[in-house]
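Review box. Two proteins, two foldings.
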Amino acid sequence: MVLEALVKFSNFYGSNEELVLAGGGNTSAKDGDVMYIKGSGTRLADITAEGFVKMSREKIAEIFTKTYPDNDKEREALSLADLMAAKLPGQESKRPSVETTLHSLFPQTYVLHLHPALVNGITCAADGKAWAQRLFGNEVLWIDACKPGYTLAKICYDTLNEYKAASGADADMLLLENHGIFIADNDVDALGEKLFSVMAKIREQAPCDPDFSVGEFDGDKAQLVFNEIADTFGEDSVITYEPSAQSLELASSAESFNKIRKPFNPDQVVYCKPYPIYINSIEEIAPVVEEYKNANGFLPKIIFVKDCGIYAVDFTPKGSETAAALFNDAMKIEFYARAFGGAKPMSDELTDFIVNWEAESYRSKQ
């Protein structure tokens, strides 16, 4: 049964931290006029059949026949309303993934969307598009960075249709700049074959992994910094400290920190806040945090400290640990991207859009 296969392969890929972190990634399956799509805020690792939203493919298709306003908020609100109206009876309490419309574009039965750091080493690289063409040719289509939601889905809609008109075949893989990979097939096993084939080709060009073992750090300073961050954020704060060799390298100077200063993908924005901060000395912590809060309207989650590494701060253990994990992922992306011309972060415009996008705000609260 289609739904059973969907649950099984979702759990399989979702349980691999090299492929999926936190609530990242999504999956879907089609059965006649019905599409089952991962619910927003659920985790692939432990999702059950109830975690998927049952949608009308016909009503989703109607979204692409409409014209929406150019204004971001109006466009996303109206297209979201139409998407929610595509839920079938009995699904009223569920919310489909933010990428439901994109999943619907593939005629293949099964769709797998992930954000592996190794893959994003090429999608978040300055020369990523050229390398993707060199490695994959037309087997994998490249989608330039753009606003998520309806805008992304419409660009993919046009790209997939153009490909079919030119080749006579349906595309089955997309690489989304500053985002991740989409893979589609009628056979579940083929999803993995395609994914790992893509990753193997990227691995040939980026054969080394970043070093996340404990590096050489200033233990006395690290403890004083920990105490100062706790005092600055308050007694309810939870701090995850990770002095990995990779974080210490990037925290060694403001110049090194600049490689990681801006986010590479939407998940990083959702779980880590858009921008980390860099601290040279303990005395800088309180004023820099205050300045950040005044400028952004929220507190930072990631703090890089010279000679110490990174501190992930939140007000729940889960939030702190998730922020640390996602930022470790960002450091992996930066490292792998060195093989493809160096890291290329998201634009400030795209970052601001995601910060204020209702759909991602909803997901981050789940």
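Next protein.
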Amino acid sequence: MTGPLCAIDHVMLAAGDLDAAQKLWRALGFTPTPRAVHGGGATANHCLMFRDTYIELIAPTGASGSPLAEGLAARGPGGMGIAFTAPDADATAAALRDAGIATQDPVALSRPLELDGRTETVSFRNVMFEGGLPGVFAFACHHATPQLTRARAEWQLHANGATGLSEVVIGAAHPADFRPALERLFGIDHVADGPHGLSVVLDGVALAVTSPVGLAQRFGTKALDGLSPLPGIAALSIVVNEADAAGAMLDMARIPYADGHHGLVVGAKDAGGVIVELVED
């Protein structure tokens, strides 16, 4: 049985200082998009673009009037949310309701984009739902102007050779508590058991829920230092062309890392509150 959601659109990382966050991720070898302020002016972002997914660095601007901005201001930096793909916002909302999930009507959002001397408007329609993933701000996102989301090809050219998300890892003391939500959102047949939790593969990107013991075994105990409180997004696994070349960049930037079971591991305290794993495809 297939659930109402089948792919990850992007992952949100909270940043207390957006300028510092984009400098950190640039040092990690990524190419942040230009700073953009959302409609209403309460939040701003930089994005790390890949072909099918992206990572959003988001922070409050200090302007009032936005529940999202207030939530960002109240929490520390690190993994915050997952936006799932909504090819059609209205159809996704209907499918979520059919699955028994309390769902709001789609909400239109936008942000300006300066492009070739003119101002364009990047538009979205977000579908907010309840009973999602504990500790994770989860929603579905429809891109009303997809041609503008990745308007510059160079935004996808990263110095460390990164090409896309491989896995999003949620850390939780009791991964089994996530099973009902995972089954409702993605389908009973798609949820798999693992030695330290649960996982589901969404259009080639894995979404895992792992215990602290599992996190320590995979990434190393030191990598958990500085991690945002659990439950929540604990780690991002990102595909790079060559791990050795990515490691050389980290060496030049003097960012500590370790050789993990699957690739290079940058601990949470050196990556803004979330573990970053760089793996070869």
